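Researcher: I need the complex structure. Ligand is magnesium ion. Inputs:
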Amino acid sequence: MICQSASYTDFRNIQSADIRFCDGINIIFGDNAVGKTSAIEGIYLCALGRSHRTSKEKDFIRFGEEAARVSIVYEDSTRQNELAIAWSQRGRKQCAKNGVLIRKMSEFIGNFRAVLFTPEHLSIIKDGPAERRGFLDNAISQLDRVYVASLQRYHTVLQQRNKLLQDCMKDPGLIPTVDIWSQQLAEEAAVISKKREEYVRSCEEYVKTIFHDMTSGREIPEMVYTGARDAAWFYSKLTENVQREILYGSTLYGTHKDDVTVFINGKEARSFASQGQQRSLSLAMKLAEGEIAKDLTGEYPVFLFDDVLSELDDSRKEYVMQGLSHRQVIMTTCETDVLPKNSYRINVKDGIFRYVP
Ligand SMILES: Nc1ncnc2c1ncn2[C@@H]1O[C@H](COP(=O)(O)OP(=O)(O)OP(=O)(O)O)[C@@H](O)[C@H]1O
Ligand SMILES: [Mg+2]
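Model: Output:
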């Protein structure tokens, strides 16, 4: 999959820009706060429909403007396509593929596939479970429409169930109505946990190989997911604990509590791995994400690396650049002395993106 160009109108600080990309390594470079991360964010929005930086979509609209728009032209194995998303201060966001409006996000996500890697991902091993669930959700969503739809329903039901649990505290007569939400939540949770477990199993295989190649070490990583459970398991947990949940005012069991634990030589990486090993593991997880997408779709996704090159030491940098030499990579940096040779360079200054020969 190749992102051929990206266009922005009043998106973040970018008033108007059209950027063309080559099918190899592209570097967007420039000073701080010129719009490099915004450019990457716009492309990732076309993959995932939502941002890694914020859930407040109005933030995308350039200060003082009414609307923002991002579009990309990309090529997949069959044809050239265009995806566009627009936000306005008043209305809802609008998504389109090849000029045709798409109403369901589950039909927008996954047309264009990208792996995003930012400095925040480097601490994914040490971060809380929410970040690791986010890794799974972002990766699987681009590969599986059923997963996206299930995840959306799960979050809606979870919110409604939590609200009802809080209402039950004031009005115990409502308690029998929790059951219908418990059933729905349990059904979606079963779908989500099964797909997450399958994903973690494939991811672990690649992480083992990549980590070994990258560090030429003897340590063996393992990834363990909370576990695939069926709807009956979730349902019984939810019903057995409903009184306790009413006290807490929130749902205590379900896939929103899941985690992926990473081990090195049988010890939990979170507490025992060195900082360098943790970075290598997170890098390996991101590269694995690309490999799994290739296995399932036949094409490599586009790799978006925001400001990570300067965070990696020379050997990891070399490993990444070599490993990705035949893929499309769009990366940003403010350090001009690390620009890889033979890259397609785009300088950004005063809001203008310009190819630099
Ligand atoms: N809605 C908006 N309207 C206008 N400007 C915005 C908006 N949202 C963010 N900005 C500004 O856009 C600028 C560019 O941000 P961005 O994160 O893209 O910079 P960057 O080039 O990645 O910088 P760095 O090298 O520090 O990471 C920042 O000054 C930010 O405050
Ligand atoms: Mg940035």
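Model: Summary of the prediction. The chain has ten helices and 15 strands.
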